[in-house]
Amino acid sequence: MISIVAVAAMAGGLAGCGAGTTVFLHDEYNFQFVERVAVIPFDNLASEPGAGARATSIFISELLAAKAFDVVEPGEVTKAMVKFASLKTSELTTEQIMELGKQLKAQGVFFGTVTESAGTRSGSTTINTVSMVVRLVETETGQTIWSATGGAGGRGFWGSLFGTSGKSASEVTRDCVRKLLGTLIH
């Protein structure tokens, strides 16, 4: 006979997203100054093609849904980024970030990197995982004012117990984005 405590312990162990979230929040910055933000297309360090584009789209959607900022249209960001097309976003200098902010009339710019996006086969099911790093840079000084690293994925307790499939790559990415944004937007 399995006790309730044993089931609860098993649920915690099989829950999936074992890794925690690491967050940096600038102590002295007044976030009320950031009204309009731009989302730069996320870099993709994962082996799965398209993971960066998927994360960018989901991030923008979740940011809009949160209604915390006015978000620059992706087409305007793409147009502004043409000047820096030969650079990876991680190679932009402070001056270039400040210039982007002026051009887009944005007080903040989000940068992101998908560090992992994988689907692991387990029998007849696929278990998707994703990890990413996202940061918000204030464009007046080019200083990072928020950064979060985290991941999501796995089948969870019930999926492990009954052998059902895990979430799709998009669902796992959305879970990760919501977890990361939840550390900035309350």
Question: What is this entry, summarized?
Answer:
This protein is α/β, with parallel strands linked by helices and 186 residues long.
**Looking at this structure, what is the CATH superfamily?**
ABC-type transport auxiliary lipoprotein component
- Count of distinct strands: 7
Distance between the termini: 42 Å
How large is the share of residues in beta strands? 25-35%
* Mean pLDDT score: 84
Structural class: alpha/beta
Overview of the structural elements:
With 186 residues, the chain is an alpha/beta fold. The chain has one domain (4-181): Rossmann fold, CATH 3.40.50. The protein has six helices and seven strands. Strands 1, 2, 3, 4, 5, 6 and 7 form a seven-stranded mixed sheet that branches. Strand 5 and strand 6 form a beta hairpin. Helix 2 crosses helix 6 (169-181).
Chart the SSEs and their pairings:
Blueprint (H helix, E strand, L loop, with lengths): L3 H10 L8 E4 L10 E4 L3 E2 L6 H16 L3 E2 L2 H8 L12 H11 L3 E15 L2 E14 L4 E11 L2 H7 L6 H13 L5
Helix pairs in contact: 2-6
Key phrases:
186 residues, alpha/beta, Rossmann fold, seven-stranded mixed β-sheet, 6 helices, 7 strands, 35% helix, globular
